[in-house]
Amino acid sequence: MSALDIFIHVETLESLASRLLAQVAISQPQAPDSNDPAESAASFAAARMAKMLEGQAIINRWLASLNSHVLGLCVILCLLLGVILMTRRGSQAFHFGWFLYGKPPTDQVFRPVHIPQHPKIFQGHLGVIRQIYGFTFLQNVPLTSNFTFGQLTLSSFFIGMIVILAVLSNSIPTQNPRRFGYLAGANIPFLVLFSMKNNPLALIGKGYEKFNFIHRTIGCVVIACALIHGGLMIRFWSQGMISNLKAFYSGCFMGIMLLLVGITAIPGIRRKFYRLFYFVHVLGYLSVISGGIYHERTLRPYMLAALSLHLLSSGWQVLKWKMLTATLTPLPGKITRVEINGIKTGWKAGHHVRLRVFGNFWHGFQAHPFTIASAASRTGTETNSLILYVKAVGTFTTMLYAKAVTVDGFKDVRPVSQNRFSSGSQAQVQLPSDICDSIIHQDKKQSLAQSKESVGVSGQAENEITANDVVLGFGLPDGVQIDVHIDGPYGGVGWHGLDEFKDIIICTGGSGISFLMAAVSELVSSAKVGGITKKALVIFAVRDWEVAKYFGQLLKIDIKEASMYGLALDVRFFVTEKVDSPIPLGDIKIRWQRPQLDVLVPEFLMDVVGDEGVFLGACGPPGLMAQVRSSVAMIDLKTAKRVGGIKTHFEELGW
């Protein structure tokens, strides 16, 4: 079934409408005021049917063009825009963010080159425009956790367009159920397009997760149109007006599956029963694609287009797959440190990977996204590894933490740390405070294997703490090794990375520490090779003091290294847990309260010199993200123009 068949179908409708209009004209050539009620009623019915068919032909012609024109135009525009952006970025854009590599570059150093984002003459004006956008569209809609006015505007525009198409030249929509069926089918390719992990729209510098709200909006429209179409068809079937039972029963099957998908996609149900949601989603997708091909011939191009997009994304995703061995280490606050030594470069701060752990059917079937918490190796002399910090909050993450605190994932390990774990409760490790400093060496050496190798090669001093000493002090196994499946990288902060801004604000909370650690490490690494970033405000809000203490010890080393290369890191911790006698964390400022971002952000902007723009990246729970958005929206236009605007990047947890 091709697009030509659809146009033939449209021409048939148009010819039928023309014949009906001709019959109306012939039936009343000289007597428009006929007194015969039956003849007048028949003429009126014929005219109404002709108008309805004419409107249906217009809509069908527009829908038919979507298959080969609109989708193709979107892809071409994305490719053109991507080529322009990648040309400005140079070779670095091709090296980072596409694939993960096991070997760092050995023959070149990726030095950050400052490329102005906009012409100097327009920088201030664009800063004002960016701030107006932030004030208008960036804030959250009241009574929602992570739905902004910008997303609401785009969703409302799309829904309004669908409503117009539903009533255009269709005076009685309830008498024309096929219109709603075509609207549902024509949106299936777009539904798949905005759900693809390897979305062509990523060429504009945005990850697939940024388009997920469009996928949800289109999904609601498809379900609504399909249910209206099915309800009207059931009424016609009850009146004996439908003879094609094959199409009727296949349509009922698709309607039931779409309804189940919609019910399980409700946020509360999706979070609580994610496995059920995932299973129903996959089954519903397969049912709609196969059922649409079987249901109606004119729907086949849309179903085949959706299937082609899915296969294209899956094929590209296979190229990103890697089977590797990971080392699990338990940390305070029920956090698991996942270190993958086989990957050295290929990502930037803000990228995330999708992790699978084999050994369990469900866990091996599902891929879970986690933000990368380390900087990629820039040269062959660096041996950075890909590191993830996973908070134990759900079934999968708790299982991962349980494996980290046990030998082979089954036996409890209790020396020194006195670990406690049972099948009926979550695992928890209390690390002694006197060895928090020593674990820093383990993180900075990146892996146990690399640390042992460096000891043998360089002739380490006897009194220097080794990674093995740290493990013995914890009373934990010498690194729990498991096989993992990595897919990525995805996401990112856009084509203009952190190292292209002179002034940066990083605000994170809870599990958002991964983005913070990657950003700080990348800034320090960039400063070592002459980066342009001179000042960064780093904010971390956390409840658990033990977590703050661990990551504070890591950041102390980064602060010291940054100061040696002209980078001023202002790190501030906001801890809500009450502690009797907290230990100092060097240059890190500790506050025992929640951060007041509406005060901290304007204070930082007051000291910004120049109008080249400020980068603000945030990652954390929805409440913190809403506070960050509000603080950005409150900045006055004069300040925004003076600093050149604020480029924002938000990583939502649990999208």
Task: Give a topology summary.
Layout: H1 3-27, H2 37-89, H3 91-95, H4 120-137, H5 149-167, H6 177-186, H7 188-193, H8 212-238, H9 245-264, H10 267-272, H11 274-295, H12 300-319, E1 321-331, E2 335-340, E3 351-357, H13 361-365, E4 368-371, E5 386-391, H14 395-404, E6 406-407, E7 411-412, H15 436-445, H16 448-458, H17 467-474, E8 480-491, E9 503-509, H18 513-528, E10 535-542, H19 545-564, E11 568-575, E12 589-591, H20 597-606, E13 614-620, H21 622-633, H22 637-643, E14 646-652
The side-by-side strand order for the widest beta sheet comes to 4-3-8-1-2-5
Mean pLDDT: 75
Number of helices: 22
CATH homologous superfamily identity of the largest domain = Nucleotide-binding domain of ferredoxin-NADP reductase (FNR) module
Structural class: alpha/beta
Given the C-alpha coordinates, what overall shape results?
A: globular
Oligomeric state of the chains in view: single chain
Task: Please give a structural write-up.
- With about 650 residues, this protein is of the alpha/beta class.
- The chain folds into two domains: about 260 residues, no CATH class; about 325 residues, Rossmann fold (3-Layer(aba) Sandwich), CATH 3.40.50.80.
- About 50% of the residues lie in helices and about 15% in strands.
- It has 22 helices and 14 strands.
- The chain has a six-stranded antiparallel β-sheet. Strands 12-11-10-9-13-14 form a six-stranded parallel β-sheet, with helices on both faces. A two-stranded antiparallel sheet has the order 6-7.
- Strand 10, helix 19 and strand 11 form a beta-alpha-beta unit.
- The chain is globular, with a radius of gyration of 30 Å.
- The two termini are about 35 Å apart.
